[in-house]
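Holo prediction — alpha-D-galactopyranose.
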Amino acid sequence: MTIRHIASIALIGAFMAACGNPQKTVVNEPALKDVVEGKFLMGVAINTNQSSGMDTAAVKVIKQHFNSVVAENCMKCEVIHPEEGRYDFTLADEFVNFGVENNMTVIGHCLIWHSQLAPWFPVDEKGKYVSAEVLKQRMKDHITTIVQRYKGKIKGWDVVNEAILEDGSYRKSPFYEILGEEYIPLAFQYAHEADPDVELYYNDYAMNMPGKREAVVKLIKQLKEKGLRIDAVGMQGHMGMDYPDINEFEESIKAFGDAGVKVMVTEWDMSALPTVRQSANISDTVAFKKSMNPYPEALPDSVSKEWNSRMKAFFNLFEKHADVITRVTAWGVSDGDSWKNNFPVKGRREYPLLFDRNYQPKPFVQEMVEAWKDSVDAVKK
Ligand code: GLA
């Protein structure tokens, strides 16, 4: 009998007890986290209206369906460390407390990233890049202060985010320009020194692409050769209807697993709209194109069906590789919350998440939960 069956029977027991004495036993409604129990954690990125409890509808969904949380924005450098020597932990503390109070696995995101970096971080008072020594000291202070603050509460950190480009070359970020490739091992070293018990991850997008896959495998090996800790690779999972190729995505899961780390699908969403092929963000000065916002009222059935079946196919892939995948995290609760409503075209109505704007599960989620309920019922009989 698997842990899942035992859990199922426990749930049935609780349900039967609740029928006899409804006041005494509270039964959780079946949920996504039950579907993947024993396989991987079901995570979600939450915003500050959610971690503060203000967005009650979203909080209900988070508590019911997910058992892991990551902060969408409030732990990023520009928020948590806006000026040299000044940290602002207000929102990050609230987020971590939310996760801890709800018995969820809390993930830290992210320590070193070129984007949403506080402007002061890599430069001196004249705006020129600081020396290698100064940057190392700033990184060490930043990482140590934050990691130590949440010791014992955070299970793992995205230590470095998006350091490698699609072709496998290093991104020419300020960290790279000043320190070269060395900034990555240094970041992992500082994080491990700050909390030897915390898990450490490398996180990036477009991880299905062969050039990036190879470079990340190389990076994992280099870190390990240096004796540094790296527990997992985060495959961001920002998808569209025509990317990534599911077979390439699978190749990367296997390649990272073979390199000796776990895999986490860290930022899962799937745009249902036409893919915009520009690499950079399109600012609001660009004329808003109707063709880029084709479903301002609702998603047509045909598109919805296609979207659901593609999401299901990826979910099945994650389940197939549950020996390597330890967490799947959706990048937001409901469609209304998603960053995709503003990227790469501002203001278009997107439908990329597992719950719709009314906080109802999308058909593929509903289907999986129903199938799970049926399997519980079968055990009962
Ligand atoms: C990247 C980051 C996330 C988030 C998304 C877009 O993937 O890792 O924190 O900012 O971009 O919202």
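READOUT: The mean pLDDT is 91.
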